[in-house]
Amino acid sequence: EVQLVESGGGLVQPGGSLRLSCAASGFTFSSYWMSWVRQAPGKGLEWVANIKQDGSEKYYVDSVKGRFTISRDNAKNSLYLQMNSLRAEDTAVYYCARNSGSYQVWGQGTLVTVSS
Amino acid sequence: EIVMTQSPATLSVSPGERATLSCRASQSVSSNLAWYQQKPGQAPRLLIYGASTRATGIPARFSGSGSGTEFTLTISSLQSEDFAVYYCQQYNNWPPLWTFGQGTKVEIK
């Protein structure tokens, strides 16, 4: 079964850091671009970051540039999102998604709450 | 940045009726357009990619059309499980700064 499972969300104070993980199974992880997409409470979907199959290319939405870092470990079939200098507006459910242009496979999401 | 605009924001439809959702791009995205369905508390699900190709397991009552800047998702006969929020997403530009529309909520009339 093709599956993505996120972990690492939680409550963090403004200015703090958090690292999200996404474990992939059921497909050849190293063959796909991967992405993080987030959804603030009651709001729509927002693409956050993309990473190429070998990690050599990374792209970010402007609002997280310089604060978030996407990475992957193909040996561990895992995707990561290091989030630093977190702000209240980063509060959202974060999804990892398999990327072929369209997002064919999604995880269940992990909630990140930035609040004092 | 390519801006995706969906209309209407909310669509009230009776079960069994047809629903037509629109998505407009601020510049041409060719046929690099996808549609997703999201139900409360769930992750989005891919319905359509390439503007008109149904994803695996998607019922034939869902159809997509359009190219360039104007796109349509049609649900031919709404079932109870189709009441949800629908998003369009473009994946045309490079670098891959791909954007979503703001969503259309399909609710029971």
Layout of secondary structure:
The complex is a heterodimer of chains A (116) and B (109).
Chain A (H helix, E strand, L loop, with lengths): L2 E5 L2 E3 L5 E8 L7 E7 L5 E7 L6 E3 L7 E6 L4 E6 L8 E9 L1 E5 L3 E5 L2
Parallel strand pairs in A: 2-11
Antiparallel strand pairs in A: 1-3, 3-8, 4-5, 4-9, 5-6, 7-8, 9-10, 9-11
Chain B lengths: L3 E4 L2 E4 L5 E7 L7 E6 L6 E5 L3 E2 L7 E6 L2 E6 L9 E6 L8 E2 L3 E5 L1
Parallel strand pairs in B: 2-11
Antiparallel strand pairs in B: 1-3, 3-8, 4-5, 4-9, 5-6, 7-8, 9-10, 9-11
Spell out the key features of this protein.
heterodimer; A: mainly beta; seven-stranded mixed beta sheet; 11 strands; 55% strand; B: 109 residues; mainly beta; globular
Written account of the structure:
The complex is a heterodimer of chains A (116) and B (109). Chain A has no helices and eleven strands. With 116 residues, chain A is an all-beta fold. The model of chain A has no long low-confidence stretch (mean pLDDT 97). Chain B is an all-beta fold. Chain B is globular. Chain B contains no helices and eleven strands. In chain B, a hairpin with a 6-residue loop joins strand 4 and strand 5. Classes of the chains: A mainly beta (116), B mainly beta (109). The interface between A and B is medium-sized, with 19 and 23 residues.
What's the average pLDDT of chain B?
96
Structural class estimated from helices and strands of chain A: mainly beta
Q: Describe the biggest sheet of chain B?
A: 7 strands, mixed
- Radius of gyration of chain B, in Å, reads 13 Å
What low-confidence regions of chain A span 5 or more consecutive residues with pLDDT below 50?
none
Helix content of chain A: under 10%
Q: What is the terminal separation of chain B in angstroms?
A: 35 Å
Please provide a brief summary of the model:
The complex is a heterodimer of chains A (116) and B (109). By secondary structure, chain A is mostly beta strands.
